[in-house]
């Protein structure tokens, strides 16, 4: 797929097998444990997942399913390990991979000093292809099988990311950044050019294989009113496309938005004024919102992406999960790489727990893993396809090893409940705990780099 990428090592993804089975502890969620209690959790300590043509055929206790398997069906033994739906990252920037862990700034200065110069390099398709391949491998290595990602302002950066995801048969949503003011000249587009380029990309990628397009105005300060209008048109004109942006991340950013858009009631209201709130719209951060904003997002069907590692790293603030939930807002988890500090949803849940502690809120292991799986799928309106192991869903899954590190094994030996085990995974685990990641039932093997 493209001359540039063909010089990179080929990812190892086999086509789905007609029938395959996986035995281990199997866990998935049927609803939010905060609403559904115990009935939200479907757990089979000795369980089996049966996959037909890349989709879930059956999920249940192994002793009930093993006898029903036709002779000769391969059974992969994940005994002692935990099989979960693939993790869903609802907010990240692939072009910021190389500036993850950049020291010393809060949002606006961090953008100028680190993010914009890094994104500039994506004018070069060779660079974009190389980073896109690494990024998709890193997602899968961490058990993340679906992501909603920002590319850069360069259309070829979107091509590179979708091509890398398609090679791995991943579900991925992404889009070209729209940004026509308050940014360096070298990253600036224009309302008409951004509109035309986005349209072309939608026609090329939206709905192709497992890929979907997101209209991507970076955030209100970097778009003129005309470009905000154009983003609304793109979102309205194309059935099923997404819209992703940032809102209410940082207090200085909020004050700047109030200066730029004095007519708006709130930062969120800016997006509402340009018809950018609705189903399949996802806003990262959502920290400095009030309940009127939350209610408005919820009523529109918009989702919040909770990005705790980024919010702590950039000193942005503390997301209020309790208020979001009380107002009926959809919430998923985002790494926000590279403002966020880890590709691991486990590490992201670790920091989510700590953010909520500082708010006097209490995130259980069950709720955390719900947010990273079905909660993410619901935020992305993909729960008919992914997020749990209901029959017919796409069989993306992650296998976690409770003995992956000496410390994890030691802590697990003292964990007596499922909730305790999940909590140990999220507090002590990272990509070392990911024994395998399966896409459409098939294990993904990262290509070994030459030289
Ligand atoms: N707001 C606008 N752009 C960005 C970005 O790249 N990262 C974060 N964390 N916030 C943003
Ligand atoms: Zn972001």
Topology:
Elements lengths: L18 E11 L3 H4 L4 E12 L2 E7 H4 L9 E11 L1 E7 L13 H14 L4 H17 L2 E7 L4 H13 L3 E5 L1 E2 L12 H15 L5 E7 L7 H13 L4 E6 L3 H10 L6 H7 L7 E5 L5 H10 L2 E4 L1 H6 L7 H6 L3 E4 L11 H14 L6 H15 L17 E4 L5 H7 L5 H11 L5 E6 L2 E2 L8
Parallel strand pairs: 1-4, 5-6, 6-7, 7-9, 8-9, 9-10, 10-11, 11-12, 12-13
Antiparallel strand pairs: 1-2, 2-3, 4-14, 14-15, 15-16
Helix pairs in contact: 4-5, 5-6, 6-7, 13-16, 14-16, 15-16
Percentage of residues in helical conformation: 25-40%
Distance between the termini: 23 Å
How many DSSP H or I helices? Answer: 16
What overall form do the CA principal axes indicate?
globular
Structural class computed from helices and strand pairing:
alpha/beta
Major beta-sheet overview: 9 strands, parallel
Bound molecules: guanine, zinc ion
Assess the beta-strand content as a share of residues: 15-25%
The beta-strand count equals 16
Global mean pLDDT? 96
Rg, rounded, reads 21 Å
Unreliable stretches: 1-6
Describe the protein.
The chain is of the alpha/beta class and 451 residues long. 37% of the residues lie in helices and 22% in strands. The strands form two sheets. Strands 5, 6, 7, 8, 9, 10, 11, 12 and 13 form a nine-stranded parallel beta sheet that branches. Helix 14 crosses helix 16. Residues 1-6 have low confidence and may be disordered. The structure holds guanine and zinc ion (ZN). Guanine binds next to helix 3.
